[in-house]
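Researcher: I'm preparing a figure for a lab meeting and need a structural model of a single chain. I don't have an experimental structure, so a prediction will have to do for now. The sequence is pasted below. Please return the structure as tokens so I can convert it later.
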Amino acid sequence: MARQTRRVICGHDADGKAVIVADGPAPNTKVRSVTGLTSTLVWITDETPADISTSADPTLRETGVAPPAGGSILRIVDFPPEPKDGPVIDNAAMKKEMGLDHGHDGAPARHAYMHRTKSIDYALVLEGEIDMLLDDSEVHLKAGDVLIQLGTNHAWVNNSNKPCRIAFVLIDAKEPPAWKAGGA
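Model: Understood. Here is the structure written out token by token.
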């Protein structure tokens, strides 16, 4: 069962007074079939500066993991514990499900969950603990830790026995020079 995230949206009434315009479960939650993780799209913008004059809910659409060109995404992800024998998934299938088309340099992926996005990512660990794998290194994160990622090839791996919940803010970015040089 997908875990719900309460989303409260503040805006303005017709007189310009600050008000709560919505309060309830974020409507765009899905369990990803390839990885088993739960992803809740909390908010999305299509441009910077963002248009905050609309009352339409921008999350009532399908989107990949990466933010729109010039935009941003706020997403809550619940990572289940890693299976003891490791994931039995295809890296290409996982990337396709996530809406990612950024490849690797041709070398085998270090882990089945390896991927990257053309974005600056702020990852705030809300609950649990998780390992973030890079090409040749890794870092262990726990509740309260914050990671800033600059378009790096990575995988999130929950080696604990409890789910890990992370809030991600992804902001569109320029393609790093390392990508053009053929780096992963």
